[in-house]
Amino acid sequence: MQATLENKAPFISLSEITKSFAGHTVLHPIDLQLHPGEFHALIGENGAGKSTLINMITGVHKPDRGLIEIDGSEVASLTPTTANQFGIYAVHQELSLCANLTIVQNIFLGNELISITGQLQKKKMREIATQLLKEVGIGDLHPDTPVIQLSLAEQQLIEFSKAVYQNPKLLVLDEATSALDPNQVLTMFNRLRELQKEGLIVVFISHRLQELFDLCDTMTVLKDGQQIVTRPIEQIDQDELISLMTGRTFSDLYPVKPDIEEVMSKKEVLVVEGLTLPNIQNLNFTLHEGEILGIGGLQGQGQQEILRSLFGTTRIISGSIGLNGQKLKLKHPKHAMKAGIAYIPADRKSEGLLLTHSIRFNISMGVLNKISDFVGTVRSKHEKETTNFAMKRMQIKAQSMEQPANALSGGNQQKVILAKWLERNPSIILLDEPTRGIDVGTKKEIYELLRTLTQSGVSIIMTSSDTLEIIGLCDRVLVMYEHQLNGALKGSELTEEKLVELTVLKK
Known about the structure:
Number of strands: 20
Strand order of the largest sheet: 6-7-8-3-9-10
Mean pLDDT: 91
Structural class: alpha/beta
Helix content: 25-40%
Largest sheet: 6 strands, mixed
Low-confidence stretches: none
Number of helices: 20
C-alpha cells in the first residue's frame, strides 16, 4: 500500500512549516505529504503540536514560515473557507452540532437543497440523511429527531456523516471516535475504507492506539512541536510508538493489579439487589472495598444509566441499594453526595465543568462548606489553599488557578473534575469514560491515581468504551448485553476474547 501511495502525486504538501504563539515555538519545521487514498495517523501527547498542525491544514492558522502546496500549486493564504473549497474538512471531538436542530437540519446546515422555485427540498434531504445514517450504523434514527435527544456517540456519528456529505478529498478526524464503542468504530472504519477506494485522504488522531494500527497506512509522531518520525505503520509497534511519544512502553501503562482473591475477600461496601431502571431489569451486583469494578458492553446497553442511578440522576423503579449495611435512598444527587459517592461524567465540558470559570471556582464549588464561614461567606485564604493543594495533588498544568477551564487541555480538564470531587473525600467514585480524548501520558497519571485511591480504601465503578482500558485497569468486569447483565469476568478470565464474546453473544 505504501509504495502505491508514494507513486501518486501528493494532494497536499507542507514544507518547513513553523508556528509560534507569543514568542513560543509550538511547531518546529514540519515536512508532510499526503497522497490520495492515504490514511495518515498523527500521534503525540497533548501539547505535542497536533492541533496546531491540523489547524494549518484546515486554514485556521497561517504558518510563520514554510510552504503549503495543494495539487502542486502554492497556496499563499489558506483559510477555512478556501480549505473547504479545496475539499478539506475536519471532524473534531468537540462537536459543532446545533442541539436544538434536527439531524437533517444539522447535516444540511448551510448547504440546504433548494428547488428552482426557491423551496426547501425537504423530502430529498430526508432521503439523503436517512442513507447517511444507515452507512454509519444508526439507520434506526429518524432524520427529524432533535440532536439534543441523542447520545454522545450518535452525535459523533452525525458529525462524521455531515462531513462525508461534503464529499471531501481530505478529512481530518480529530478524536472523532472517542465516544464510540468497538462496533461503532468498526462501522465507521468500513465506511472510510469504501471512501478510500475513491481517493479519500484521512488524517486520523486518536488516543486509542489500536485504532491507529487498525485504520492507517502511515504515521507521524510529534513531540514538543518536533516531527520525531514519519513512517509506514507496519514498521512500528505499540511499544515503540509509546516510547517515541513518552519514553515509556505499553507494558508500563497500567498499574499492577492486586491479587483478585485479596480484592474479593474485602468487605462489600455496596450491595445492589433487584435494581430496575427504565431500561434495565433486576440487576444484582456487589462492590468491594478498594475494588475497581468495570461495567462493559457495547455502547448504550445501560452502563451510563447504572452509574447515574447510583448518583440519583436516573429514576430507580425498584430494587435496593445498600452502602455499608445501610439502605440508601438515591432520589437526588445530594443523597449520593451525602453518602460519600462522587460522579465523573463522560461529557466533561457540558456536565463536569463550568468552562468559562476559573480552576479555582470549579474546584471550590464542590467544597463550599469546607471553605466558608458559619454565615456562608467564602474565606478567600482557605479557598486558595484548598485549590493549591488540589492542583498539586493532581499535577494540573496551568498558568495559575485563575486560568479558565476552557483554556486547559482535555487531560487537565479531567484532572480539575477529579480534584473537585477528591476534596470531598468520597468512599465510592463513579467514573464514566474517565480518559476519553486524553493523551497516553495523562492516562497513565490518572490510572496510577485511581489505583492509589483504591489502596487507601476508595472503591470505583467505571465504564469505558475502550476495551483495553477496561481489561487493563479493572479488577472485575460486569458485561451488559441487551440491557441485562450477561456475565462477570475477573482475574485470569478477564481477557479481550472473553469480554468481546459476552459483549456480542447472549450467555
